[in-house]
């Protein structure tokens, strides 16, 4: 395996020198792009799109055709793993993801088993292979998964939740049951991400979207402990190349020191944290990814450029070195004007060069 | 004016010695209580309930009849202030609060003026007077308001929002307009809270429910700066008594040092922060209020008691002294079994005594 021609993203994650700050955007292949909406229409629905390696590859590449992005991310859904565990994922129009068979009874929880990623999740591996081929070593491909706690939220609640009442009632009343779900899910995620790496993913990211709804103690026990197991179980190298890992807990800025200790190469941060403050707190243990407010993309090009520069300035104000991957602090909004993204990507690339010459 | 017979809440806020940790719960007068639902039915709708001093007094006292709470909080809505500014508050069934005339045009924003609290908000002052009479100096009465940024969210969005797209677009594109809204709203809140104090409120709390959705920079510029103006403008003493102030930014744990610097007596914290960590970070500048996850109240009485003790232990593990008011980290859920609340209140009272004897 050879490194991609543009390997700035991988180098930044490993805190190696780069010429400019690499950029990619969470949910960069998504509804704000008319070409994505067109492919999705052809697919019939979102799940068909995820399950077709051909169309998943097509939408993965769409943002790279428009913008000078430094990484591609596999187009898929975080809930493919519980779907492969037999919970029956479906999308109710306007209501988001749901499970036909959420975990409600103890016997259902005890019967959970890690899926074989090369069997029930074959379509994801096929997409990874197809995307790698299509990328032709231009930029690296990121594989990803939801975190065990985030997946468990959907598995127990049966869908999105405002208060996470079911899973938190389980957490407080039957922590043994929740730990069982998390243990099996963590094993599943390790198998799933390693299969993505074996199929061609060159970095992996774990999305802990709901870990930030836990208490400071609960986060350590029910989310971070399993993130640590996953990081320890991942292929650190594959085919002679280091495979960096990124852990992103939305709302986890307060816990950055603890996250930086679990062995991941980078931590993702939302816009509530200052990158320089986090660098001061965690030292040079990890690279940082983030963290522009996605809503800044609704401003004028001048303001977008200024806000992008501020994030770069903030990171570098804590001193030389470090490793920074520029990103939003959460997924890009479906209402974002597509041409605003070019302004952001180009500004960060140009503006960051002088910091990397120092 | 004399201090209430049970003044443990006021003393804890001022970091004076207490015999046990005082307890109250955000939204303690609310839908989880059948007697509240009964009064609300009689009122016809939520806004009638808020606008009737008699019924507002009735529901304010209901939780105190059931539980050994150490403070009462005025029953009202955070959106009374923008309603008094002429925006036309109404509640659409199942959709939460809305404004008939949200701020969309520059001329509407330039025309905003602070309302006279004794005129358009007379019903709130009448409720405060009636509640104070009914409390007969048993426990103190807390007055409250929404923070300028939180009120502005509703005023600009027109109701609840998932992504705060309108107000954030204004923030990035026309910060001058947002600052104008915030300036007028901060003046309004100062007048409103001072009128509550003059009517009998013995402490005040400012709810910054949405400040945590801002970036680290945005929070300081668009929320904290106005919280600071308010704290500086409040009656520090009234009728010979110190009137303590509490500032609560949901999701603001990362910014606790900055919040502690604005001159408030206490800061409220949600369950994502450890009280001992916050005490170590902010020192003895302020008292802390919080911070049990409201979802813990869905567990068994044994678990509720254990979780309540953990919050008390956490606070005191940072050393002797300090000032702690026990509370949830957010409003109590409408689905909470009422008898679970007794377990929590009684446990905190009994268990905390030994820490205060030290």
Mean pLDDT of chain A, nearest integer? 97
- CATH class category name of chain A: Alpha Beta
Global morphology of chain A = globular
Based on the structure, what is the oligomeric state of the protein chains? Answer: homodimer
Which chain pair shows the most residues in contact? Answer: A-B, 35 and 36 residues
Widest sheet, order of strands of chain A: 1-4-5-8-9-10-11
Rg of chain A, Cα atoms, Å: 19 Å
Distance between the termini of chain A: 31 Å
Task: Give the biggest sheet of chain A.
Answer: 7 strands, parallel
> Class by helix and strand content of chain A?
alpha/beta
User: What is the number of independent domains of chain A?
Assistant: 1
Approximate helicity band of chain A: 40-55%
Number of DSSP E strands of chain A: 11
Give start-end ranges of low-pLDDT stretches of chain A: none
CATH architecture of chain A: Alpha-Beta Barrel
Instruction: Give the SSE string of chain A.
Output: HHHHEHEEHHEHHHEHEEEHEHEHEH
The total count of helices of chain A amounts to 15
């Amino acid at each position: 395996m050879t490194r991609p021609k543009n390997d700035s993203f991988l180098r930044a994650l490993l805190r190696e020198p780069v010429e400019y700050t690499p950029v990619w955007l969470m949910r960069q292949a998504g509804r704000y792009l008319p070409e994505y909406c067109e492919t999705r229409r052809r697919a019939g629905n979102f799940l068909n799109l995820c399950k077709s390696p051909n169309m998943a590859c097509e939408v993965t590449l769409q943002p790279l055709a428009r913008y000078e992005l430094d990484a591609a991310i596999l187009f898929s859904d975080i809930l493919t793993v519980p779907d492969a565990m037999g919970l029956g994922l479906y999308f109710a129009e306007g209501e988001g993801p749901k499970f036909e068979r959420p975990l409600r009874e103890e016997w259902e929880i005890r019967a959970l088993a890690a899926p074989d990623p090369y069997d029930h999740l074959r379509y994801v591996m096929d997409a990874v292979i197809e995307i790698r081929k299509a990328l032709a070593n231009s930029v690296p491909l990121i594989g990803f998964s939801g975190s065990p706690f985030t997946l468990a939220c959907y598995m127990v609640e049966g869908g999105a939740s405002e208060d996470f009442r079911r899973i938190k009632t389980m957490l407080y009343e039957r922590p043994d049951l929740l730990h069982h779900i998390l243990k099996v899910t963590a094993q599943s995620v390790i198998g799933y991400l390693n299969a993505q790496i074996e199929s061609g993913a060159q970095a992996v990211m774990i999305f802990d979207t709901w870990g930030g709804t836990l208490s400071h103690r609960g986060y350590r026990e029910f989310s971070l402990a399993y993130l640590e197991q996953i990081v320890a179980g991942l292929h650190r190298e594959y085919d002679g190349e280091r495979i960096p890992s990124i852990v992103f807990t939305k709302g986890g800025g307060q816990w950055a020191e603890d996250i930086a200790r679990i062995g991941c190469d980078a931590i993702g941060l939302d816009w509530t944290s200052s990158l320089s403050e986090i660098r001061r707190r965690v030292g040079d243990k990890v690279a940082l990814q983030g963290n522009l407010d996605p809503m800044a993309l609704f401003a004028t090009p001048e303001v977008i450029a200024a806000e992008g520069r501020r994030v770069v300035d903030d990171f570098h104000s804590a001193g030389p070195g470090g490793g920074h991957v520029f990103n939003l602090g959460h997924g890009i909004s479906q209402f974002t004007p597509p041409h605003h993204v070019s302004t952001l990507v180009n500004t960060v690339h140009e503006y960051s060069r002088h910091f990397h010459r120092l």
